[in-house]
Write a structure and sequence with these properties.
The chain is mainly alpha-helical and 234 residues long. It is built from eight helices and no strands. The protein is flat. InterPro entries: DUF3043.
Length: 234
């Protein structure tokens, strides 16, 4: 290896000296590198626009409007530059693209993709709670049907108060049982989370209420959709 400031040598002695110096330099460079650090790749990092050109995905430059007035003027100028049919076609294409994006986001969210989950569903602890709740049956699964029956009883009570009172007592007893079951479910999931995730990111009330609200939803209506079957081990 020849150093940049060394001149070309014609004599064998000079060449041998250059080789010795190069070997020493290589050894010195390798020894000077910190542990775990790799040597430089020997070429500059390519720019974003160069990579985009090679991939054929070069994006056009876009200056965002600074004010709402400027944005309105740009929109008006764009509309004036098109025919009526062209403008309708552009709006139709934008609606289709937006609908396609919403459909994809909803599908990925229902599949449990972390990149598309709502903030309330993000976190490994909440994923565990969802799977735990979805793998079991609870009386709380009937919470919405019971609530619907209570509403119907309130409507029917105007014409048959005795029957309405009896059904109301039964529904009240069922609701008390659901609350008790939800309390024990919250304690159970928090205990399991403590065992599996010592450095938990959510409070006990947050995870307990999250498990309760998911258990009260009908299985088909849960979002994200259940990723485990009833009876699976979580």
């Amino acid at each position: 290896m020849k150093l940049p400031w060394n001149k070309d040598a014609d004599t064998p002695g000079d060449n041998a000296a250059d080789e010795n110096i190069g070997a020493f330099e290589d050894t010195f460079e390798d020894a000077s590198l910190p542990k775990g650090q790799t040597p430089k790749k020997g070429r500059p990092t390519p720019k974003r626009n160069e990579v985009e050109r090679q991939a054929g995905t070069r994006r056009a430059h876009y200056d965002a409007p600074l004010t709402p007035k400027e944005a309105k003027e740009r929109k008006k100028a764009e509309k004036d530059s098109m025919t009526k049919e062209e403008f309708k076609e552009k709006k139709r294409r934008e609606r289709e693209e937006a609908a396609s994006a919403r459909k994809k986001a909803n599908e990925r969210m229902m599949a449990g993709d972390p990149n598309y989950l709502l903030p309330r569903d993000q976190g490994k602890e909440k994923l565990f709670v969802r799977n735990y709740v979805d793998s079991r049956r609870y009386m709380m699964n009937m919470f919405l049907p019971i609530a619907l029956i209570v509403v119907l009883v309130m409507i029917i009570g105007m014409s048959a108060p005795q029957i309405a009172n009896l059904v109301s007592l039964i529904m009240l007893f069922a609701i008390v049982l659901l609350v008790i079951e939800g309390f024990f479910l919250g304690r159970k999931v928090n205990k399991l989370v403590d065992e599996r995730f010592p450095e938990r990111a959510f409070g006990r009330w947050t995870l307990g209420f999250y498990a309760f609200t998911r258990a009260t939803m009908i299985r088909r209506m849960r979002t994200p959709a259940p990723q485990v079957n009833i009876g699976d081990t979580v």
